[in-house]
Design goal:
The protein is of the alpha/beta class. The protein contains 14 helices and 10 strands. Helix 1 crosses helix 2. The structure holds nicotinamide-adenine-dinucleotide and zinc ion. Zinc ion (ZN) binds next to helix 11.
Length: 347
């Protein structure tokens, strides 16, 4: 939907909540507060707000504790609803709070970043970071409703918007066919500096947001706990997580790292004979047209690679690696970490 706080009001009304625990961050409150207040107007007197400091550094137990304190201090009950109004950081913590308060409250996601719209708000993964690593504490807790309003993107910094586009590219590479072709056809429009500021830019974005959400829903619906096909959503994420860790989560935004990681892993898979030659170049050129980085210097990749050994998804010396044989032909391949390193880094 667009510029339609009524859709959020409607989603909340349908749940008939005794109270709404609103989780947001100070950036989002400043940028999107008017829409939030408009959506919540009919619930006057029943709103409990936890406005956190923004940023991944704040995705920790202390912030979760603040949500618990606000909720319990103001009398939530089992018929209350938690609303996550913000990016993926807010959504992940709101979902965790919802899953733990009174052993589980109903939960609504209102994502305000492109990344949260196309990825984080769908699928029910919640949680927060631990000094030992990202997203190490968490639960699965599905939202009862996800309300996507593209108007929120108008205030999103361009770099954040583009980071979200990288996850759209990932879905398009997994699905191939018309999704990927349409994205390639619209790449110059979507890569424009003003795409989220203009109505026609948001119009151009809309079908890709929808296709990404539907694609993720299909993979998650059949595999909620990620024992099978859901892991395909980690395409490009093995290298991405290593680059993010190496850059101490300051150098690359997650989406930027995912774009670069996809190109690195597709190149590696081409060397391994698993992926059709030319696929990595196709993806790199799409990323560039969208205003995204598609590579890092070889020294950086080499220095970052040891973090692959600490990936949550590895088991022993092998990794179940999500990759595509060609665009639209995803597969999971068991590879040794040594082979992967040879294909990706030391070839
Ligand atoms: N649960 C999942 O399945 C899943 C999937 C992917 C990512 N994630 C998580 O999502 C997080 C990243 O999410 P993100 O990229 O949305 O980052 P984010 O939540 O940190 O938001 C990015 C920045 O944009 C600001 N912002 C948000 N919406 C805005 C708006 N409309 N206008 C202006 N500013 C706005 C935020 O305050 C923040 O400073 C990571 O912690 C990641 O682990 C979770
Ligand atoms: Zn991702």
């Amino acid at each position: 939907v667009r510029e339609a706080p009524a859709a959020l009001t409607e989603a909340l009304t349908a749940l008939d909540p005794t109270a709404i625990v609103v989780v947001t961050d100070s950036h989002v409150e400043a940028a999107r507060g008017a829409a939030l207040r408009a959506a919540l107007a009919p619930f006057k007197g029943r709103v409990i707000t936890a406005a956190l400091a923004p940023g991944e550094e704040e995705k920790n137990l202390n912030s979760v504790s603040m949500i618990w304190d606000a909720a319990l201090g103001q009398g939530v009950d089992r018929r209350s609803v938690v609303l996550g109004f913000g990016g993926g950081v807010v959504g992940d913590m709101a979902g965790f709070a919802a899953s733990t308060l009174l052993r589980g409250l109903r939960f609504v996601q209102a994502p305000t970043t492109l990344l949260a719209m196309v990825d984080a708000s769908v699928g029910g993964k919640t949680g927060f970071d631990h000094p030992a690593g990202k997203n190490l504490i968490g639960t699965f807790h599905q939202p009862n409703r996800v309300v996507v309003d593209l108007a929120h993107l108008k205030t999103l910094p361009l770099r954040e918007l583009r980071a979200g586009l990288a996850e759209v590219v990932k879905m398009a590479v997994l699905e191939g066919g018309p999704f990927l072709e349409a994205l390639e056809a619209k790449a110059d429009v979507l890569g424009g500096a003003e795409v989220n500021k203009k109505e026609d830019g948001l119009d151009a974005l809309t079908p890709f947001v929808r296709a990404s959400i539907l694609g993720k829903m299909r993979l998650v619906r059949d595999d909620e706990l990620e024992s099978g096909p859901r892991a395909l959503l980690n395409l490009g994420h093995t290298a991405a997580h290593a680059l993010e860790s190496h850059g101490q989560y300051r150098k690359h935004l997650h989406g930027e790292a995912v774009g670069i990681g996809m190109v690195i892993e597709l190149q590696a898979a081409e060397r391994a004979g698993l992926t059709k030659a030319g696929t990595s170049v196709r993806v790199a050129s799409l990323l560039k047209r969208l205003g995204l980085p598609s590579s890092v210097p070889p020294e950086e990749l080499r220095a970052a690679w040891h973090f692959v050994g600490s990936d949550k998804k590895k088991s022993g010396s092998t990794l179940l690696w999500p990759i595509v044989a060609a665009a639209g032909e995803p597969l999971m391949e068991r590879v040794s970490l040594a082979d992967l390193e040879r294909w990706a880094v030391t070839h």
